[in-house]
């Protein structure tokens, strides 16, 4: 055994041939980071950087690759040379998951972090609580398809980043060490290990427009005339006028009112649904022989799925059951929703904003445009 000057000064030649076991650390069953175990148990001999024992350079990538993680784990478990066994089965203080967490910490620090290695991240931060297969915690079976059928990655990201129940936060800025890139790599790794996921997606019915003629005759003909040409400034029978205004503007004007015309949308106090208003515009464009009308392609409020279960599953965890859990984004407040506006709320939900991830499938989320619209409609209807 090597005799270091720093030891010989005090201990002389009476250095034990085999180091005594270090004192048992305080209970650390819920500490997931392998760095904690390394600093508590290993630094006395190996040093904070892992290079204090000659010939055992734990901070060297070359050394770790040469020895191999499994061989190093075996040495720690059973002991080797002057190092005693650290496994609980051999009288030591560590279980095998904690030993692998230590090695993952050393491996990550030695290799560097040019790109996240999710397997190493999992072993360093998660294995001591969740186990080698990810299924040690009841109700949180991380590598089973059933878990991911009920859990979206974005929701899991929020839980891991900020902490939840007995789990501490792991995200940088929340008290943890992992970047957003590392967290997403780790969660995707677990999701991929679960294998194929049977996603249950509710079928969205394509809106079917009612006949627009009787709706026009009942609600519009009295002012605009039977053929729509009675008002020179709003000649609804003219192809040129209809093209100039455009489908979206005509729907908006009919819904919200314009000039001397009142609002006809039920949302604005009128008597027509969004689908009925679209049907009227489709009828006028058809009569005017305008080709390529896009009316039937526009989403209709009456065709939306129920927004409440979508909100409960994707939003309530952060915003609360009534939408008022976050003071800066009080979704249960009619004043807040009106201030933000429907379009802005839909855009923020779809693309993400601040700490909220993007929920649109086009941006890597899990919701369709129709589902996002349904959530906003649900909130606007229930706001006080």
Number of strands: 0
Domain tally: 4
Give the class-level CATH name of the largest domain.
Answer: Mainly Alpha
Distance between the termini: 76 Å
Helix proportion = 40-55%
Assign the CATH topology of the largest domain: Cytochrome Bc1 Complex, Chain D, domain 2
Specify the overall morphology: rod-shaped
| Biggest sheet architecture | none
Compact description:
The N and C termini lie far apart (76 Å). The protein has helices spanning 5-11, 34-41, 43-46, 61-67, 69-78, 96-111, 118-125, 127-130, 145-150, 153-162, 180-193, 212-219, 221-224, 239-245, 247-256, 274-287, 307-314, 316-319, 334-340, 342-351, 369-382.
What would your notes on this structure say?
With 384 residues, the protein is mainly alpha-helical. It has four domains: 20-132, Cytochrome c-like domain (Cytochrome Bc1 Complex, Chain D, domain 2, Orthogonal Bundle); 137-200, Cytochrome Bc1 Complex, Chain D, domain 2; 212-301, Cytochrome Bc1 Complex, Chain D, domain 2 (Orthogonal Bundle), CATH 1.10.760; 305-382, Cytochrome Bc1 Complex, Chain D, domain 2. It has helices spanning 5-11, 34-41, 43-46, 61-67, 69-78, 96-111, 118-125, 127-130, 145-150, 153-162, 180-193, 212-219, 221-224, 239-245, 247-256, 274-287, 307-314, 316-319, 334-340, 342-351, 369-382. The longest helix has 16 residues, at 96-111. The model is unreliable at 8-16, 20-30, 201-206 and 294-302 (pLDDT under 50).
Q: Key terms for this structure?
A:
384 residues, mainly alpha, Cytochrome Bc1 Complex, Chain D, domain 2, 47% helix
